[in-house]
Amino acid sequence: MISFTSRQKYYFYSGPMDMRKDIDTLSEVVRSQMGLDPYIEESVFIFMSKNLRTMKILYRGRRRFELTKIRLDDEKFFLPVFDEQCSCYKICWSDFVTLTEGVQVTKMQIKEDVA
């Protein structure tokens, strides 16, 4: 079971993602579209569906990948404001918690891009 902490590095993919993708396909997205190495331990990659009801979290732990899916029934996840030129953002643990809890935020802007 994944235990998310502030020690891990969190990366948010800013575009909509097809939620049918599996670990291998999402790892390739991390490499080709986000420009990151999916094999770096303690890395967390966050993907959001187009309708903002589903989130997939790809986690690279010690010697293994794990994939978690979170789906909201009646609500939508809040999508932060991004610079449309960038496809990937490094976010902090507290922003990750805010995103995954489905907390209704009035405005959230992430300024640090990875690419």
TrEMBL record:
Domain of life: Bacteria
InterPro entries in UniProt: Transposase_IS66_Orf2
Protein name: IS66 family insertion sequence element accessory protein TnpB
